[in-house]
């Protein structure tokens, strides 16, 4: 059928105009070329498509049947072209982002706010889930991009860094006062304190577990929370000593609501950024990455 597509286009225009000379002007080709194309199409189909009259040409019964099908096809093509132009003109697209609740609230939201202001017609979906699940969905190409801590094994993923974060153990001053009263000066917090960590499915927990194992630290009493927000709240009310991202409690540490427990060996820092497949990127993903890089430059300049 491919070799007949141009002939079908000519047939469609002639049938629509009802006149070969008018169709020639529409298609910017000569009348003899149109007549030749129609003849070839009729020959290949084995039927006559037009009959001539004083005003031009008229579809035969067989031609009318063909035109009914051809017209819907070319109208669909026209609609498709208009839709593509609308998508291009208004930057209409779709972006699916995987991110944990914590990173979404504290890191992603400012990016989203600025991006939506610049590209208000982009449809954005958020897959709120663990970092591990985000990486799995990225591997399976079920989402476009993920905001994650830099994975040790990137596999086929590209990574665009956004910020560096530090983890630390914090607690309410009242909790430490009571711990010192009960255990005496310089207690080993990991043996005497109520240590609060995220569950093992969380990447932050895996990072902290590696730190504890590398430094041969054992925890006697452990409370497990499902997300970082709970850990922070538990720490604020004096429930125990929580391992949290220090950037998220900077104000608490500054105003004295929380205090940081000094460690002989600090927990290694981590890098947060956008992970994605660099091949076959959509225009919307390219726009988001370009925006995020510019946004990060502005944030860095403002903090200097």
TrEMBL record:
SUPFAM superfamilies linked to this entry? Periplasmic binding protein-like II, Winged helix' DNA-binding domain
Query: Which top-rank group of organisms is this from?
Result: Bacteria
Q: Which Pfam families match?
A: HTH_1, LysR_substrate
Swiss-Prot/TrEMBL keywords: DNA-binding, Transcription, Transcription regulation
Entry annotated with the keyword Magnesium: no
In its UniProt record, a GO molecular function of this protein is: DNA-binding transcription factor activity
By sequence similarity, the record places it as follows: Belongs to the LysR transcriptional regulatory family.
In its UniProt entry, what is this protein called?
LysR family transcriptional regulator
Q: What is the organism of origin for this protein?
A: Candidatus Copromonas faecavium
């Amino acid at each position: 059928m491919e070799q007949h597509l141009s002939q079908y286009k000519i047939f469609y225009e002639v049938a629509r105009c009802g006149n070969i000379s008018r169709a020639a002007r529409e298609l910017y080709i000569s009348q003899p070329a149109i007549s030749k194309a129609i003849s070839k199409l009729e020959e290949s189909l084995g039927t006559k498509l037009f009959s001539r009259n004083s005003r031009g040409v008229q579809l035969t019964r067989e031609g009318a049947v063909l035109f009914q099908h051809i017209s819907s096809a070319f109208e669909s093509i026209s609609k498709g072209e208009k839709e593509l132009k609308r998508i291009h003109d208004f930057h209409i697209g779709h972006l699916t982002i995987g991110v944990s609740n914590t990173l979404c609230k504290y890191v992603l939201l400012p990016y989203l706010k600025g991006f939506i202001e610049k590209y208000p017609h982009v449809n954005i979906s958020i897959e709120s889930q663990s970092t591990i699940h985000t990486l799995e969905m990225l591997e399976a190409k079920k989402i476009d991009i993920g905001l994650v801590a830099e994975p040790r094994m990137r596999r086929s993923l590209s990574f665009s860094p956004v910020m560096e974060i530090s983890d630390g153990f914090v607690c309410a001053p009242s909790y430490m006062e009571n711990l010192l009263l009960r255990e005496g000066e310089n207690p080993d917090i990991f043996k005497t304190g109520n240590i609060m960590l995220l569950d093992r499915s969380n990447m932050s927990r895996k990072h902290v577990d590696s730190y504890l194992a590398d430094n041969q630290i054992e925890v006697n009493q452990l409370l497990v929370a499902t997300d970082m927000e709970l850990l922070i709240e538990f720490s604020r009310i004096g429930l125990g000593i929580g391992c949290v991202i220090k950037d998220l409690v900077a104000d608490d540490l500054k105003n004295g609501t929380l205090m940081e427990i000094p460690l002989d060996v600090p927990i290694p820092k981590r890098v947060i950024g956008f992970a994605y497949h660099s091949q076959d990127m959509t225009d919307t993903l390219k726009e988001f990455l370009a925006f995020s890089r510019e946004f990060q430059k502005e944030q860095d300049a403002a903090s200097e």
